[in-house]
Amino acid sequence: MSDPREPIIRFDHASFGFPGLIALSDISLTIYEGEFLGVIGPNGSGKTTLCRAVLGLLAPVQGHLHIFDCACDKLRCYHRAKIGYLPQKGVVDRNFPVTVLETVMMGRYGALGLFKRPGRTDHAIALEALTQVGMEAHKDDALGLLSGGQQQRVFIARALAQQPKVLILDEPTTGLDITAQHNVIELVQHLHDQLKLTVLLITHDINMIRSRVDRLVLLKTKLFAAAPPADVLKPEILHQVYGKELVITENDLVIVEDYHHHH
Amino acid sequence: MLDLLAYDFMQRSLLAAAMVGGLCSIIGVFVVLRGLAFVGAGTSHAAFAGVALGYLMGWPPLLLALVFGLATVWITGWVEEKGRMKLDVSIGILYTTTMALGILFIGLMKTYNAEVYGYLFGSVLSVTPEELRIIGALSILVLGLILLFAKELYFIAFDQEMAEASGVPARQIFFLLLTLVALTVVVSLKTVGAILVFAMILIPASTAYQLTHSLRTLTLYSATIGISTSVAGVLISAIWDVPSGPAIVLLATSIFFISLFFSPKRVKRTGAAHAH
Q: Helix and strand tally (H, E) in chain A?
């Protein structure tokens, strides 16, 4: 692939998991700076594993993983603070007594390092991140009292406060109503365009992201495709991963075929 | 009451109560937020087993309390990290095992030893100047470490995996927190005793939890409640001649129940319920 952009993440025949229980096997994938990638695949296909690997939470059991200029075959790489992460919803206790600004400030902690207290600059960066997601008016509100969509914005702001080069979002729209889903995806697109962030967006909603991403990464334990949406969303490719029930309609929507209507 | 304050023993016990109350309530913030409530209970019983072994063998009881306490929290942390079983199960097992050891050690002693029971129930009014110095030194150590790593401790209490993902050495900070819990329990053994120290850790932070949505305010409220109930408890104990440990804990518990009624979180929920 001849791409003028810098490769920033490179999987080289990398496998992840435990011996006897491989979650992702033999992945070779290069991600370029400024790319917007959609990561799709069925439940348990290794999408979250891929993200955890990029975050440095998992070392490859075989092969290599290079992030920025670092061969991250061991954990605890310095690069973590440069990768913003929005975990799947439900990980965090919603009644936790924390304000919006306190939550976003946490994004500064990794970058600051031990023994250093957040100062005026960090405060300004956190406020800027809140402005970027349109939540600056809520800075002193309790996180637990916000709506699901607003909380997701705050968590995205926390990731932005790390001043990341890469933004990873793990199913950011799960559990949100249809408008909030749209708004979150719009925001991600906007941040990608404005801040030139490399974005890895894990989702089940292929139709919502297909017109926005540069490439779709299709996983099911192995890498089935990493190409522009038009090249991935073809019956012969999708059927390998999702089974034959998946069909593509005339107006390019990916849907599950309902056998009752046809037989 | 002013006469009482003139006595050396009274000044010592008020100072000890203030330090232990402050220390427990501040570490309690992280214990409550990180969901380690039961770990506090397990650690205090383990520490008591250490005290019993100390008296049985003629070794320094507080040192053995520390060894037992640290072993318990580290094993608990390790088990949680490995994901072998739920935290409450592993601590439940260690809790009862160390309690069994404690009873065994007491049973092996040929004579009745009232001092051992002092560690079970605590006796803040009999704190010696030397014990006060140990409490002071350990309190400064624990509080200093909390201050030094405050931002990391808050982050792992909120979301340990997120902290790890954003470059905070979350595993090490988690073990530091467990170590600080064990140290706090040992510091508090002589004054409030193994059974009640758990309450000193949990109640002020849980009370503060009802009253605020901010981490910073939570810590401030918790420390204020911890110190004031401890000092007031000692005064009540001296004036009405009741045991100091229960006086402190029951006072704190009353404030906790009052806070439940006045909690802004409760008001919000009721308001939301009416809206539907």
A: 9, 12
Nearest-10 Cα torsion for A39, A45, A51, A56: -150
One-letter amino acid of A101: L
Rounding to the nearest 10 degrees, give the CA dihedral for residues A231, A232, A236, A238.
-170
Q: Which of B158, B161, B164 lies closest to A98 in CB terms?
A: B158
Q: Which residues of B touch A115 (CB under 8 A)?
A: 148
Q: Report pLDDT digits (tens) over B97-155.
A: 999 999 999 999 888 788 888 888 888 888 889 989 989 999 999 999 999 999 999 99
Report pTM. Answer: 0.87
Residues 6+ apart with CB under 8 A from B266: B210, B260
Beta carbons of B209 and A83 less than 8 Å apart: no
Chain B CB contacts of A142 under 8 Å are 213-214
Report pLDDT for B91: 85
Q: Each residue of A102-139: pLDDT tens digit?
A: 999 999 998 888 888 899 999 999 999 999 999 999 99
Q: Which two structure tokens, joined as six digits, stand for A5?
A: 């952009």
Q: Structural domain boundaries of chain A?
A: 7-232, 233-263
Residues in B whose CB is inside 8 Å of some CB of A read 33, 148-149, 151-152, 154-155, 158-159, 161-169, 209, 212-216, 218, 265, 268
Q: How many beta carbons lie within 10 A of that of residue A231, not counting itself?
A: 12
DSSP 8-state secondary structure symbol assigned to residue A145: G
* A7-232 classified as CATH 3.40.50.300: yes
User: What is the mean pLDDT of the segment spanning B27-42?
Assistant: 90
Give the rounded distance of the alpha carbon of B250 from its chain centre. Answer: 15
The amino acid present at B186, given as its one-letter code, is: V
Sheet of A7-18, strands arranged across: A21-32, A7-18, A62-67, A70-71
Which amino acid is located at A197 in the chain? Answer: L
Q: Which residues of B touch A83 (CB under 8 A)?
A: 165-166
ipTM rounded to 2 decimals: 0.84
At B188-199, the pLDDT tens digits run 988 888 888 988
Q: Which residues contact A52 (CB under 8 A, 6 or more apart)?
A: A16, A58, B165
List the structure tokens of A34: 């400024």
Give the torsion through C-alpha atoms of B89, B93, B96, B102, to 10 deg.
-140
Cβ contacts (< 8 Å) between B265 and chain A: which residues? 95
Q: Which of A84, A96, A114 sits opposite B158 (nearest CB)?
A: A96
State which amino acid sits at residue A68. Answer: F
What structural domains and CATH numbers belong to chain B? 2-199 (1.10.3470.10)
Reported as half-sphere exposure (CB side, CA atoms, 13 A), residue B190 has a value of 22
Query: Which residue, B133, B139, B100, B97, is CA-closest to B227?
Result: B139
Question: Could you give the angle at which helices B170-211 and B61-82 cross, rounded to 10 degrees?
Answer: 100
Query: Residue A97's closest chain B neighbor by CA?
Result: B213
